[in-house]
Fold this protein.
Amino acid sequence: MGSLNLKKQARIKRKKRIRKRIFGTNEKPRLSVFRSSKHIYAQVVNDVDGLTLASASSLEKSTINEPDLKKKIDVAKFIGKQIAKRSNKKGIKRVVFDRNGFLYHGRVKALSEGAREEGLEF
């Protein structure tokens, strides 16, 4: 059980290192990603005002009811497309990507690729 705690501590260390440099503004908000063992969440955040401008997660009914989403990586790509669509509706075209200490591969990478496919720039 100790190694799991070490993994979490390492991720939090990476997160702090990343967040020193990444900051969401009005012009370029931050796209924050959180990945748990079963689900994935994404938020577009304006750090100046402390507001969440758009969000999407694999727990939403629209995601759960999709019949062709069987693999977690496919769900992540779908969530990326959802967050990009919701951001575009609010007039947000450019964001800063915050991987939240997670390594940029697998589901985190799939989410970012899905967001880029829908026109979000980062």
